[in-house]
Amino acid sequence: MRQYLLCLLLALTIAPAFTRTRHFAKDSYLSSDEVQSFETDDDDDVTPTLSRDTFVLDDYRKLTTDPAAERLRGQALVDYVNARQDLWTARLSDKFESYSEGAKWGLMGVNNVANSIKARKHESATRFLDINLPKNFDSRTNWPQCDSIKQIRDQSSCGSCWAFGAVEAMSDRICIASEGKIQATLSADDLLSCCRACGFGCDGGEPLAAWRYWVKDGIVTGSNYTLKQGCKPYPFPNCEHHSNKTHFPACKHDLYPTPKCEKTCQDGYTKEYKSDKFYGKTAYSVHPSVEAIQKEVYTHGPVEVAFEVYEDFLNYDGGIYVHQGGKLGGGHAVKLIGWGEDAGIPYWIVANSWNTDWGEDGFFRILRGVDECGIESGVVGGVPKIDSYNFDNDDDDLF
Ligand SMILES: *[C@@H]1O[C@H](CO)[C@@H](O)[C@H](O)[C@H]1NC(C)=O
Ligand SMILES: *[C@@H]1O[C@H](CO)[C@@H](O)[C@H](O)[C@H]1NC(C)=O
């Protein structure tokens, strides 16, 4: 039954225009002997190494990933990534080595990273604005009054990235549009469990459908598991995602089942479920170009983006991510908050939902301008409906 529905969903949202040069076959991994010989062979290989000092975007565009590198994993992959380039560093987290493929990739949760043809019919108009875009832009410093932009959440052992990227950006946008007067933390649980059109809950969903749900049905507030604040806090605790740190227990092997849709607030919360809802005015996709994405973020704040996650991304430990090797795991949704340049290398600044122990305190940077892993072709957002809220409402419990 589920399989059928999933296929239907795939058929509806598939984007034929989306192809990548770095195409990965789903082969089995190399044995350690093969890895050994591959690494030795590589010494005479002409494939250029990427260096911070000599990096040229147009040259990178023409590169394809070595097919043998697709099959690397574990320490061999980490060593390969670190030896080949110095834009980012990889680090192995021992505790995830034992994970089954299903457990490792179940967290991805987006089927098609590029927006469909249909979605592209409703593109944000901010791309037509005449804006003199700055070289560097970070939503955290541009809207310092909005706490949600600085926060990193944790999806736990649930493929709910699509819901997190959405509620994170919606919360930011409510704050930005209200000029800091409304600091709401929208509930990932409410969206995850109640939006049927979004897909499959903890087994994956579609970002644009999440934004449409916000417009049509609204989303209540809710904090993380630890704080237990708002109408519907997240039901799952933080856990370590591919990180070697030990603050939290490692994410469990099996994904949690999708929580039941409860149209009530937690006990003790002062508001009714319905009156706690925040609504969007519009939901749209963003034209897949660097400038259109920049104008959208500059005007309305963070956006939700989807991209392809390969095994090397799991080992990201800082820097500007460019895909090097490892197999394709699945689509992942996150929140893009700004951009910059480091020694002439352009990047996007992105918030992941694997808590602050992963990456650069929960954030990561990824190459900008080459649609790296599809990050520039699956951008969605929307504008909050805030005129119906009373800004002077002294309800400081707005969570
Ligand atoms: C990960 O942590 C373990 C135990 O704390 C340590 O032995 C190991 O060296 C760490 N690995 C890396 C790559 O830092
Ligand atoms: C829960 O959320 C609060 C507020 O965003 C944050 O300060 C806290 O660190 C979070 N707790 C965990 C365990 O992530």
Q: What ligand species are in this complex?
A: 2-acetamido-2-deoxy-beta-D-glucopyranose
Following the backbone from N to C, one meets helices and strands in this order, namely HHHHHEHEEHHHHHEHEHEEEEE
CATH superfamily: Cysteine proteinases
Task: Tell me the radius of gyration.
Answer: 21 Å
Topology overview:
Elements (H helix, E strand, L loop, with lengths): L1 H12 L18 H10 L15 H6 L4 H4 L3 H11 L3 E3 L10 H5 L3 E2 L26 E2 H4 L4 H4 L10 H17 L10 H7 L12 H10 L62 E7 L4 H11 L2 E8 H4 L1 E6 L6 E15 L2 E7 L11 E5 L11 E7 L14
Parallel strand pairs: 6-9
Antiparallel strand pairs: 1-6, 2-7, 3-7, 4-10, 5-7, 5-10, 7-8, 8-9
The structure holds 2-acetamido-2-deoxy-beta-D-glucopyranose (2 copies).
One 2-acetamido-2-deoxy-beta-D-glucopyranose binds next to loops.
Description:
InterPro entries: Papain-like_cys_pep_sf, Pept_asp_AS, Pept_cys_AS, Pept_his_AS, Peptidase_C1A, Peptidase_C1A_C. Keywords: Disulfide bond, Hydrolase, Protease, Signal, Thiol protease, Zymogen. It comes from Panagrellus redivivus. This is Pept_C1 domain-containing protein. The protein is of the alpha+beta class and 399 residues long. It is built from 13 helices and 10 strands. Strands 1, 2, 3, 4, 5, 6, 7, 8, 9 and 10 form a 10-stranded mixed β-sheet that branches. Strand 7 and strand 8 form a beta hairpin. The longest helix has 17 residues. The radius of gyration is 21 Å and the shape is globular. It binds 2-acetamido-2-deoxy-beta-D-glucopyranose (2 copies). The site of one 2-acetamido-2-deoxy-beta-D-glucopyranose has 4 residues, from loops.
